[in-house]
Amino acid sequence: MKPLSVPERLTKNRFNLDEDESHIEVNQEIAKATGTGKAIVACCPAHVYAEEPDGTISVEYAACLECGTCLAVAAPGALKWHYPRGGFGVQFREG
Amino acid sequence: MTETAEPDFEVIVVGAGIAGCITAYQLAQQGRSVLLIERGEAAGAKNLSGGVLYSRGIQEIFPDFLAEAPVERRITRNVVQFLNATSSVGIDYQDARLADPVNAVTVLRAKLDAWLGEKCEEAGVLVMPGVRVDRVLTEAAASAPAAHAANGTTGKRVVGVQAGDDELRAKVVVAADGVNSFIARDVGLRQKEPLNHLAVGVKSVVTLPRETIEARFNLTGDQGAALAVVGDCTEGVGGGGFLYTNTDSLSVGVVVRLDDLTAQQKVVTDVFDHFLEHRFIAPYLEGGELTEYGCHLVAEGGMKMIGEVAMDGMIVVGDAAGLTLNTGLTVRGMDLAVASAVAAAAGIGSALEAKDTSKAGLAGYRERFFASYAGKDMKTYAGAPAFLERERMYRQYGELFANVLYGAFNLDTRPRRHLLSVARGALKHSPLKMRQLVSDGIAGARSL
Question: Do A43 and B200 lie within an 8 Å CB cutoff?
């Protein structure tokens, strides 16, 4: 099977993007101080998080597969993460 | 029991997965008024699992399940494989008895849960998709605070849910909202789990012609195979890989424990790619097309993760209650969701009958669950998670087994030694010590 990048894989999925509201918010200071930033970059299967050259964590919330792994590894206060609003986000056809 | 407002429904179920749908279905069959709220566009749209459902429990609820439900293949072949970088040792168990009667099937949850949602509607459940529950509505419980401290209750009574601007009230709320269960956390019934109780599963669904799948896995008709893999598939991180056959696709993935993934500072998608590209896995996927990519947080704590499952006006079922079981050979979650739903529907039914939906009134749910085969299995395998945290399982054993077999099969013109002597030699060169082998043997025998 041809190796695909994570963004290429995500193009196979169906998403209803919530244009008005992100369901993810990183507290940059706490994320940096606690190591949460690097941890969520490494553990997210959708590569929602990336570390920018200035050390901040950017968030591509549209790619989120809503597993909650980032929230599980995040230190208290470093990450606000909840499910997207009803009907939005990934919609699995296989599952 | 005092009621401040007339409830809109007798029961509100949050989350249309297996546990939520079956709880709602059985309550509706009892004649109860039930609302089932789902945040996805339809039942199943947010749901994902590895894919093997041990199906006897759900067949008791739906006698025509195998004929009617969107099941993929019936598992007649189980392979358990220790994978090393350049070698692999496995047990390949095929048995016609597993097909008659059927014991396990592969499923794709977006399809299965959509079917369960239809069954709920047919039974009279009001299904409300596309709605996210933001929080539960609580009131101070009727009894005195001291009483709550004494019997372990929160002092709050759940009276309904809030979704956007809408408030919906019920006598009982069922939190069936999955492993993250924001609802149970919101009211303090669950706390944040330690990382060794959690794993992340990453999965691809890869389409292949059904004839190709049957030829590759030595199957005919609707027979299916399930491969469970440990070792180099996760680059030594605690966890494993899986490969399950669907009708015309494969479910392939890894599940890695979060404490070990973060401690070893691995990138989860690198671990997944390593598995897909492994010399003994890639040939199964050759020529396949990716159809969907997904992931899921997995509860791995077993019995230790099950805390309180009821409070005044609310119970927790399925993944939200931490109900999963990894015995090393079988990995279970969906059948436990079924069993918890059956216990929940019966427990709630009795509580409504007795007009007491307090924690004490709902206690029948927990009792029924632990009296069921699923609850008993949770207790039997209570020691399994700690055993499976022994890191030796994920690298050293596979190499030891392969080295013993290499000694036996590699006829290199030197005179042969007895197998026991080969094994001793292999152990001597392995980082494993005899006392570790003995310790693991005893612990494994006790916990698995």
Answer: yes
